[in-house]
Design brief:
By secondary structure, this protein is an alpha/beta fold. The chain has 15 helices and 24 strands. A 7-stranded mixed sheet has the order 16-17-18-15-14-20-21, sandwiched between helices. It is globular and about 80 Å long. Keywords: Oxidoreductase.
């Protein structure tokens, strides 16, 4: 069976070759025992792009064994930081070289616009790889004083080992880089399980892993259903750490499986219900732009989507008028069109979920200010929808970002204290934003907001050197920055006695 599909893209007048096998030991191979296939669908047309192998639990076993062998022989502690850095930089160079084609494939499989995939997701991923390439030869421990006349101690930050990495469908390339870069920088090996909805770019990136020169088994890619491959990685006794980005419900299952197997280390970046506060002193034009970005970027399919905006009552009407104009200006269409600023949602299941929430908002009495009507055309399109007249008990206000679409609830507050209470009235704590030109207020409110990331006078922009992660039910652990290195290392303390003599018996 061929391990490559040729994808025709008439709109671009070209074809793209896509690997369709499992990537293990630097080769694309068939499944050990699975005859199942995963159809990759274009959400703009609802057509199947191609079909790839769906890995089984036994395939995960093979991939983990390959990763373990590489960790013990050609990677792990057997390679210098200089070499890890060189290979990561080479991989970044190759992704930069192929950025246009990768963006086209991302647009086909995910629906996001080519220019967004290329200039933002892929551009950021290249920077992420280069950032961690810079860390690869700087993994340092400490020397600790015990007794200068007899003993010293020092620490080593060892690579934790084989890592199972489970990434979501909303940022397929970006989340790949967030997981892969710090793990490889410290010397871990990887079994990657991309989302079954968007597996194509992870397979394409696997080709570049070989071209960059990484030894076989260092990075392995097993597309699979989450209930099969993801569950197998979480429960695998020879996986040392599992990293997951996705829903809180699945995160709980992964943590439970990790605990019941070998108590492997776990990092979880989960959902949110992120608040966005606009105070009366804010630049309302800018605040509306950032609020529009917060809910419309990536068609609202973002863990930190600012899905709850609360505006001070003195500027509420004025802000809403500006926000509506901003949202209406966004062109939602086929990601292969240059004029498109946002694409369809990723799948029929996601489309039905988002519309279910929109209908729920209407039924519970919220007022639709803009959007809220289905298109009569092909594609899983959801135009940005703004609700007002909301209350705290409505599903669109209280439930996790599983809405995961461009659906915004806008409420109002009178005082700063009320704004903080409204913002924190959630069991999630991934992101939060505030807009104010009162510096003291910015400090007070940013301190009071219960979230892993707080944006002041902007929203949803991240930097590779700044940590990202959640509080409460939004997860544990951190990605990005130096903090992510801690997720992939194990600290070993070494006590060195050079002068103390033990008298025995005691």
């Amino acid at each position: 069976m061929a391990q490559t599909a040729v994808v025709n893209v008439p709109k671009l007048n070209k074809t793209i070759n896509v690997p369709t096998g499992l990537f293990i030991n630097n080769e694309f191979v068939p499944s050990v025992d699975s005859q199942e296939r995963i159809d990759a669908v274009n959400p703009a047309t609802e057509e199947v792009i191609c079909s790839i192998i769906a890995g089984s639990e036994k395939d995960i076993d093979v991939a983990v064994a390959a990763a373990r062998h590489a960790f013990k022989t050609t990677w792990g502690k057997n390679i210098t930081g200089w070499e890890r850095s060189r290979l990561l930089n080479k991989l970044a160079d190759l992704i930069e070289r192929d950025a246009q084609e990768l963006a086209e494939l991302e647009a086909l499989n995910n629906g996001k616009p080519i220019k967004i995939a290329r200039d933002f997701d892929i551009g950021d991923s290249i920077q992420c790889l280069r950032y961690y390439a810079g860390w690869a030869d700087k993994i340092a421990g400490q020397t600790l004083e015990c007794d200068n006349t007899k003993k010293l101690a020092f620490t080593r930050h060892d690579p934790i080992g084989v890592c199972g990495q489970i990434i979501p469908w909303n940022y397929p390339i970006n989340m790949w880089s967030w997981k892969v870069a710090p793990a490889l920088a410290v010397g871990c090996t990887i079994v990657m399980k991309p989302s079954e909805l968007t597996p194509l770019t992870a397979l394409k990136l696997s080709e570049l892993v070989v071209e960059a020169g990484f030894p076989p088994g260092v990075v392995n890619t097993v597309p699979s259903l989450g209930s099969v491959g993801g569950a197998a990685l979480a429960a695998h006794p020879d996986v040392d750490k599992v990293a997951f980005t996705g829903s809180t419900v699945t995160g709980r299952k992964i943590m439970e499986a990790a605990a019941k197997s070998n108590l492997k280390k776990v990092s979880l970046e989960l959902g949110g219900k992120s608040p966005h506060l606009v105070f009366e002193s804010a630049d309302l034009e800018q605040a509306a732009s950032w609020a529009a970005l917060g809910i419309c970027y990536n068609t609202g399919q973002d863990c930190t989507a600012g899905s709850r905006v609360y505006v001070q009552d003195t500027v509420y009407d004025k802000f809403l008028a500006v926000l509506v104009d901003k949202v209406k200006a966004l062109n939602v269409g086929d990601g292969l069109d240059d004029a498109t600023g946002a694409g369809p949602v990723v799948s029929k299941g996601q489309y039905d979920r988002v519309w279910g929430y929109i209908e729920s908002g209407k039924a519970e009495g919220a007022r639709v200010l803009v959007g809220g009507e289905k298109r009569n055309s092909k594609g899983y399109y959801v135009d940005p929808t703004i609700f007002t007249n909301i209350s705290a008990d409505m599903k669109i206000v209280k439930e996790e970002a599983s809405i995961f679409g461009p659906v915004l609830s806008v409420g109002k507050f009178k005082t700063e204290e009320e704004a903080v209470i409204l913002a924190n009235d959630t069991s999630y704590g991934l992101g939060a934003g505030l807009h104010s030109n009162d510096a003291n207020q910015c400090m007070r409110v940013s301190s009071a907001l219960e979230a892993g990331t707080v944006w002041v006078n902007q929203y949803n922009l991240l930097c590779n050197n700044v940590p990202f992660g959640g509080k409460k039910q939004s997860g544990i652990g951190r990605e990005l920055g130096s903090y992510a290195l801690e997720e992939y290392t194990s600290v070993k303390a070494i006590h060195w006695n050079f002068g103390e003599k033990l008298e025995w018996p005691l």
